[in-house]
Amino acid sequence: MTPICDYHMHTPLCGHAVGLPSQYVERAIALGLEEMGFSDHAPLVHIVDPKISMSHGQLPLYHQMIEDVRSRYKNKIRIKIAVEADFIPGYEAKTKTILDGYPYDYVIGSVHFIKDWGFDNPDERDGWNEHNVNAVYHDYFDLLRQSAKAGIFDIMGHVDLVKKFGNRPTQDMTQEVRQTAQVFKKAGVAVEINTSGLRKPVNEMYPQLAHLKKYCAAGVPLTFGSDAHDPKDVGADFAAAVELAKKAGYSEYVLFEKRKIVDRIKL
Ligand SMILES: [Zn+2]
Ligand SMILES: [Zn+2]
């Protein structure tokens, strides 16, 4: 199997990851990866929480840290610099200003909040008792579509994260997913297979096969991400991720540079 490029990993600047960037890089090299990308949590735009994301003031340090490993390991692996940014409706302009502040290779857009509720935050898990699960799913897919339409992201992150704690809808969400896939295609964003769901209560990759099939059918490009918050998880479960991609109908994945797709790699 061709070693797959890992585009989703973090650094301790976000307040909930461990390990030096060099340890993430060493792990990627040990796995035979030719390319990887750091995509730590960009500063939040609607609240400040040092346990969720880096602060605005830490951005220069983030870039310095990644530039440092990029030059140190340049003969061994290509390192892309990115961020994972939250989609918060009404804060698109502020988010764009942050993303325009540096020349990123790609930006992962993620929905982690429904209104003020961090629905995937273990500290806010009780919120599930106060919400109707179907309504949460509808809101989530609506936010996914809005985030793609915002035109400020390149790759949509973990696109069924809402299932993280195992809360499943009782209504059929096929129409929501189909519509979301069409919006992604029109917006020109890619989707990722994110293996971190296998390390969460749901014990399943994001997105599930039935959803991924819809994204593939709509012609949405694909990337891979471990969402590693620990160097040991770089490239985790990528053989299974490739299998999932192929089952969904994908025959290639894409590489980004300066916020454009620059290469398509056969699976
Ligand atoms: Zn994180
Ligand atoms: Zn995320």
Write the layout of secondary structure elements.
Blueprint: H1 21-30, E1 35-41, H2 59-72, E2 78-86, H3 92-99, E3 106-110, H4 133-149, E4 155-156, H5 174-187, E5 190-194, H6 209-217, E6 222-225, H7 238-248, E7 252-257, E8 260-266
Parallel strand pairs: 1-2, 2-3, 3-4, 4-5, 5-6
Antiparallel strand pairs: 7-8
Helix pairs in contact: 4-5, 5-6, 6-7
Characterize the structure shown:
The chain is of the alpha/beta class and 267 residues long. It has a single domain (12-266), classed as TIM Barrel (Alpha-Beta Barrel), CATH 3.20.20. It is 31% helix and 17% strand. The protein has seven helices and eight strands. The chain has helices at 21-30, 59-72, 92-99, 133-149, 174-187, 209-217, 238-248; strands at 35-41, 78-86, 106-110, 155-156, 190-194, 222-225, 252-257, 260-266. A six-stranded parallel beta sheet has the order 1-2-3-4-5-6. Strands 7-8 form a two-stranded antiparallel ribbon. Helix 2 links the parallel strand 1 and strand 2 (78-86). It is globular and about 50 Å long. One zinc ion (ZN) is lined by residues 84, 110, 112, 157-158.
The structural class is alpha/beta
Query: Which outline best applies?
Result: globular
Distance between the termini: 8 Å
Q: Quick one: CATH superfamily? A: Metal-dependent hydrolases
Q: What is the topology, as strand order, of the major beta sheet? A: 1-2-3-4-5-6
CATH topology: TIM Barrel
**Cα-atom Rg, whole angstroms?**
17 Å
Portion of residues within helices: 25-40%
Q: What number of structural domains do the residues give?
A: 1
List how many beta strands DSSP finds. 8
What is the string of helix and strand elements?
A: HEHEHEHEHEHEHEE
What small molecules does the structure contain?
zinc ion
CATH class categorisation: Alpha Beta
Give the biggest beta sheet.
Answer: 6 strands, parallel
CATH architecture: Alpha-Beta Barrel
Q: Count the helices. How many?
A: 7
Average residue pLDDT: 97
Poorly predicted ranges:
none
